[in-house]
Amino acid sequence: MAVQNSTGNPAGDILRYSPGHLRLRFVIDKIVGWVLLLAFLAVLFPLADMLYWVGEKALPTFTMNTLTLNQVGTGGGLHSMIVGTFIILILSTVIATGIGVLAGMYTAEFAPRRVAEAGRVAGYLLAGVPAIVLGYFGFYLLVIYTKWDYNTLAGAITLGIFMVPFVYRATDLAFVNVPHDQREGALAMGASRFQYLRRVAFPIAMPTILSGVFLAMALGMGETAPLVLTVGWSNTVPTNLLQPTGYLTGAIWNFYDFPSTYGSFQTLAFQAAFLLILIVIALNVGVQIISEHYRRKLRGLVG
Amino acid sequence: MSEPGPPEGGVPTGAAPTLPPPERLRDRITWKMVLGSPVALLPMFLLAAVAGVLLYASDLHNFGWSLWGTDWNWIPPGPGSSYGIGYFALGSVLTASLAMLLATVLSLAMAISIVVYLPVIPSRALTVVTDLLAGIPSVVFGIWGFVVLAPYFGENLEPSLRDALYWLPGFGGPAFAIGGGTGILLAVFVLTIMIIPITTAIMRESLRAVPHSAIEAGLALGATRWEVVRKVRLPMARAGIFGALFLGFGRAIGESVAVSMLIGATPQLPPSLYAGGYTIAAYILDQQDSAFAYPVLLQVLVEFALILLLISVVVNIVGHRLTRGSRNSGTLN
After folding, report:
1. N or C, which terminus of chain A has less Cβ within 10 Å?
2. How far is A303 from chain B (nearest CA, A)?
3. pLDDT bracket for residue A19 (50, 70, 90)
4. Cβ–Cβ of A249/B137 closer than 8 Å?
5. Which residues of A55-83 are buried (b: 16+ CB within 10 A; e: fewer)?
6. How many CB contacts within 8 angstroms connect chain A with chain B?
7. Domains of chain B, with CATH numbers?
8. Each residue of A250-284: pLDDT tens digit?
9. What is the DSSP letter of A4?
10. Is the CB of A126 less than 8 angstroms away from the CB of B106?
11. Is A195's CB within 8 Å of B315's CB?
12. ipTM, interface predicted TM-score of the complex
């Protein structure tokens, strides 16, 4: 029968005559592939539209003044908000990295099994706590209870707590995933655990930890709710940490619903959105470069 | 990033094989700092502190059962005020569930596309792009939704949806409910787009983590790529997929800023999906100034925050348990 209807192409014969409707199954496979790709594009289209739109709105009016002027009245620039964002981000990154790396190392290397499990669950849950709840915690404890009023430090602490689980989980994962051979090798060479940690495990774990820190920074910088509730708002650069400050996400939050005819409030919001996206991209590129560098270093490709 | 646990190979964690304690003094000091330091368990303490402070700030006896009702008349705070969470909770659960359902379907499609179907270079490029999108601030999505999408939804999409799908529950309702376009549908749409990068990343990693031997076995038996996905990859990656689902729900229900900008800020029983609503998270954010001014409202909002915390903890515990259970069983079907 196969010979009778042969197309001269052996593969075609197999497709046509083998049991289990092989050709139909291949067609289904193809169709599914295209449908999934379509769904993919359907998601990417609005996202691309958003990125394009932000650029289109922000770029024509984007000048050096945007970066160097404070917001005054309904005009000016984003200077104080950029500075404020970086003050908060640096402080909270220090807090989150300190706590997260220590705790992650402890969980992966030192903790008894049960404690490690409990720590991981706690980290998982902390990562799932809504930012607004953390913000309210900061609002109650650091703004109202302490009578500090809205201040930069409260925002940094709250954001630091928000960022801890990301650093913690990355560190834990990084140390747990250090190949077992390395540990046994270090043990065989007579290394102490501290030597093992510093000389063997840490270099291997470093790229993962760093990407965790960068991820935490990107997510932290994009948070609005914890800061709205704790930092308050100001359009000048703060002179000490117990004053309120401006920040980029707050610029959008505070200015988004002014009509476009009302001064340049909406323009400022668009520019802030543009800057935020730029910084997120920079952080992402940064983490790629750094972890690639470490990978090459581990392979002995660079000094 | 999926939750860290012991990796698939079952590499033992903790202190085995045991290394000798440090000998040098400097090493010993660092050792003590890490090993004996309470800082090492801070994530646990932080979680406890957040819950503890909110519990301390709240006083459940003050409001009793009225907190669970739907009356929400509190201005001015006085004897006649009522603080019911009903409509806010309804809005939260409704928007988060719808967004989660949509995001699950779409991000599963994206993850399978990236892992199985696309050639290497587009697949890598799209992985980088989706990861990048996970970092886009929610407030940017908010302003985009408010300025661009809301007019489009109000003038084009929602009227035509209502004409076409009036028979479907939630898609009919009175015409005035559409308003300026802000409403539950818009909030769900933007929430879906917001959580897709995260759910996609988790699903992608769990689809990738399926052992090659199982995939190759399937292919060797003559299965097509799709059949391998359906019968090998999906069952074996169930853990991560459910994890992504719960994490997505948690993100959606906790999102306050974008939702507050888009949902129309009306606590009501929505007559349709086009109508305005409210969520717990968005309400907490919006009423911050009032909370600063009125101690009573501060307490009410603390209760709201506690309820939100409880929901997120429950969702995350369930997600954690589910993913761990199916990871341990790790069977082919």
Report:
1. C
2. 26
3. low
4. yes
5. bebbeeebeeebeeebbeeeebbbbbbbb
6. 302
7. 87-329 (1.10.3720.10)
8. 999 999 988 888 878 888 999 999 999 999 999 98
9. T
10. no
11. no
12. 0.87
